[in-house]
Write a structure and sequence with these properties.
about 425 residues; 5-stranded mixed beta barrel; Rossmann fold; 3-stranded parallel β-sheet; single chain; pyruvate-formate lyase- activating enzyme; OB fold (Dihydrolipoamide Acetyltransferase, E2P)
């Protein structure tokens, strides 16, 4: 979501005639911020302190992103070198201020100047209507605002015309999408987007177990464009903790979704989020989460230790009663377990042919990209391969985090 926000603002600046450059040469520095975790917020403050040395009377420092919704009223007081605090998506006044300050006339607009990559992120929902007790997103991004289906499709059409091979539909809870004009929900939206000529892959994230509809899984299974990857945060494998988190579902419901998805798509890539050490998490509750990881064999688990976020229900009304040392033990235990599971799962791809969408080259100059299930894949001895090429490879090796394979030229597709 932050990347999509950055790309949106960058497109507007480029359309107005600005160019990207190094910090040393730049007139304007813009920080796009995330505050989901305290470490992210701390990096914002650290970067603003560093920019004191860069700041001059002719230079502009601006902050946008989630911290504006959380700390916007006090940022200027803390950082007098800060020139602008810009709410997410509300860029017109900021651009007008820049134009006046630098005495610049926009001239002819170039609305898509230079920002479309191989994958293009499209926001379909801004904000969230859920009230998970640990989550600060509703406070910093507001309640849900749904983008009309025609606008989403139009942006996707333009992205593909500009060279995108993959589109990713974004929402804090993408399953809750409803077209404001009454044309349906997420299943209907992905049906519309997947029909776009030239679009090779379609993803969406992030799903919520309370709102995901079985119809969406059926649409995924029947499509040759929608990727076989489902990002479905569980957060805890214990019903008591899920209730304290206000997640709105129990484990039997989560298991039913996964069972249905895997019956329809046996090769599904399943990604989840887990928080350890949430207030009230007993050793039994933790072991239930551990057992869930063993049972589900997730492809990727984003693990985090609970830390209170000011402004959330949990921070204000629940005692942070799991000691830090115990949180760390539980985190490391699950990290080690998930590494074993991921290595076992990626090993099952050895000997199989997979399609890779090439994104670039790694530090060893090997082409890399992702397969439809979301796993990173590296092409060994790939030769001249352009970003955007769809390539079929035979998997020869696998680690916990990636696949390695050789090109199968008879089944590969050149870049557009």
């Amino acid at each position: 979501m932050n990347l999509a926000d950055s790309e949106d603002l960058a497109r507007r600046l480029l359309a107005a005639g600005y160019v990207e450059d190094s910090l040393e040469r730049a007139d304007i520095a813009i920080l796009n911020t995330c505050v989901v975790r305290q470490a992210s917020e701390d990096r914002v403050y650290s970067r603003l302190h560093e920019l004191k040395q860069w700041k001059t009377a002719e230079r502009t420092i601006a902050v946008t992103g989630c911290i504006v919704g959380k700390e916007g009223d006090v940022l200027r007081g803390k950082f007098p070198q800060l020139d602008a605090v810009v709410p997410i998506g509300q860029y017109e006044d900021f651009l007008a201020t820049l134009e006046a300050r630098y005495d610049y006339s926009q001239g002819e607009a170039l609305p898509q100047a230079g920002r479309t990559g191989i994958s293009h992120y499209v926001r379909v929902i801004q904000g969230c209507d859920h009230n998970c007790t640990f989550c600060i997103v509703p406070k910093v991004r507001g309640r849900e605002r749904h983008v009309p289906m025609d606008d989403v499709v139009a942006e996707c059409l333009q992205a593909v015309a500009d060279g995108a091979r993959e589109v990713v539909l974004l929402g804090q809870n993408v399953d809750d999408y409803t077209d404001p004009t009454g044309r349906g929900g997420l299943a209907g939206l992905v049906r519309e987007v997947e029909r776009i000529p030239g679009l090779k892959r379609l993803r969406f994230m992030t799903s919520h177990p309370q709102d995901l509809e079985m119809e969406l899984l059926e649409v995924m299974a029947a499509s040759e464009v929608i990727c076989r990857e489902l990002q479905l945060p569980v957060q805890s494998g214990d019903d008591t903790i899920l209730k304290r988190m206000a997640r709105g579902y129990q484990m039997r419901h989560y298991r039913a979704i996964v069972e249905r998805a895997r019956n329809l798509m046996p090769d599904l890539g399943l990604v989840t989020d887990v928080i350890v050490g949430f207030p009230g998490e007993s050793e039994t509750a933790f072991q239930n989460t551990r057992a869930l990881l063993e049972e589900m064999e997730f492809d990727v688990v984003h693990l985090a230790m609970y830390s209170p976020r000011p402004g959330t229900y949990a921070a204000g009304r629940m005692e942070d009663d799991v000691p830090h040392e115990e949180k760390l033990r539980r985190l490391n235990d699950l990290l080690a377990l998930q590494r074993e599971i991921a290595a076992r799962k990626t090993g099952r791809w050895i000997g199989r042919d997979v399609e890779v969408l090439i994104e670039g080259r790694d530090e060893l100059h090997r082409p890399y990209g992702r397969i439809r299930q979301g796993k990173r894949a590296i092409v060994m001895m790939g030769g001249e391969i352009a970003p955007g090429e769809l390539m079929n490879i035979r998997v020869l090796q696998a680690t916990a985090g990636q696949l390695l394979g050789m090109r199968n030229p008879t089944k590969s597709e050149p870049a557009a």
